[in-house]
Every structure is written in structure tokens, then in C-alpha cells.
Design a protein that fits this description.
- Strand 1, helix 3 (52-64) and strand 2 (73-76) form a beta-alpha-beta unit.
- The chain has a two-stranded parallel sheet.
- It has helices at 4-8, 14-31, 52-64, 102-120; strands at 37-40, 73-76.
- The mean pLDDT is 95.
- The protein is 45% helix and 7% strand.
- Helix 2 (14-31) crosses helix 3 (52-64).
- It has 121 residues and is mainly alpha-helical.
- It is globular and about 40 Å long.
Length: 121
């Protein structure tokens, strides 16, 4: 969930958050060049699609999806698993509009499981 606090606590611009994520990916490549990284899109913040924090996370996700290289970094955005059809974020899903409810951790696990299995082959 790298980057979510940059958006939520520091209100950093999407470009700045993406640059920080890229720096971490670069550092991981230096330390563990053989590692495969599943880079998840930052989860939605705020109740609606026009919430300022949602706009920052969506903007960051639009940048970081380009870090996917299909060799070392694999981007996956599972935000659709948490959002209603109209793009709203329910407090049943994320009671504080940030952290998933207990049941949503299984949704998260199910959503990333196929990608993790593929990367572990």
C-alpha cells in the first residue's frame, strides 16, 4: 500500500507520490534484482470519485501502471473489487474510507491470488 500515506497525510501530488514509488522499485532492483514485484494500485480513498484524495490516488495509479515491465514489475489494480458500480466507496467496505473491513481482506487476497501464483512459478 505504498503511497497511500503520501496522499492521505501529506496531500502530495500524484507525480511526487509516483516518483517515490519508483525510487523504492529502483532500490528493490538494486538489492534484489531477481525479485518479481506485484505493484498494486493504491486503494481508493474518499467516498466519491471526485474526492480530492481519490483524485490523487487515481492520478498516481495512472502513472505507476506504466512501471509494469512484464519482467520484474507487474502492476495490478483491484480497486473495482472495492467500489460500487457508481464509483462510490461504501463504509461497509472501508469503514474509515481507507482501511478495508475484515471481510474485505479476503476479497483482496482472492483478487491478487492468481497474479501471485503466476509470479511464483
Amino acid at each position: 500500500m505504498i503511497g497511500t500515506n503520501n496522499v492521505g497525510h501529506r496531500n502530495e501530488a500524484s507525480k511526487e507520490v509516483a516518483e517515490g514509488i519508483k525510487a523504492i522499485l529502483d532500490r528493490l532492483e538494486t538489492k534484489q534484482p531477481q525479485a518479481k514485484i506485484l505493484l498494486l494500485g493504491i486503494f481508493p480513498r474518499g467516498a466519491t470519485s471526485n474526492d480530492p484524495k481519490r483524485l490523487l490516488t487515481d492520478g498516481t495509479n495512472a502513472i505507476i501502471k506504466n512501471f509494469h515491465d512484464g519482467k520484474r514489475v507487474f502492476y495490478l489494480n483491484i480497486n473495482d473489487k472495492f467500489l460500487e458500480k457508481d464509483g462510490t466507496l461504501s463504509k461497509k467496505v472501508m469503514p474509515d474510507l481507507l482501511h478495508p473491513s475484515k471481510a474485505q481482506y479476503q476479497v483482496w487476497a482472492n483478487a491478487i491470488d492468481p497474479s501471485l501464483k503466476k509470479l511464483m512459478q
